[in-house]
Design a protein that fits this description.
By secondary structure, the protein is α+β, with helices and mostly antiparallel strands. The chain has a domain of 113 residues. The chain contains three helices and nine strands, in the order ββββαβββααββ. Strands 5-6-7 form a three-stranded antiparallel β-sheet, with no helix packed on it. β3 and β4 form a beta hairpin.
Amino acid sequence: MDSPFWGIIPGKASLPLGQITLPVQFDTAKHFCVDYVNFLIADFNMVYHAILGRQALAKFMAVLHYTYLVLKMPREQGVLSLRTNLDVGYNCEKKSFMLAKATDISICMQYFITTSQLISLEDLETPTMEAARASTKYKEVKEVALVPSDQSKTARIRAGLEPK
């Protein structure tokens, strides 16, 4: 029980809280199958009540067809087929993704609120604008006229550079 669940809620992982063994019955009283299955308990807010993993499917020798949402397993009376309504399955997936998105947003919001509370009030203050500094990199500069006839249009260049 040390390994986390992945892929149940997109982008999220969760460690199991514990496990429980329950009897599972498939189909009706006339044509059914009962066996005990170990379920891992997880703290997921989602539309599924239970998820049968590879171990449960192997235990029942079940084959799952995802496209048609049919679970088939061999029984003494023949093949037991469990079907679902495609519309219900689609709506279930939509709700699951909406829950995952809401969970992701609420977790991110909680992270940002917690992080912002750790920042001191001094760091949250808006800095005042400083005056532009004069370049101190080159101490020797000379002024060059950009337009020879107008001395008001000049530029400062390093003293070692040629005017052109």
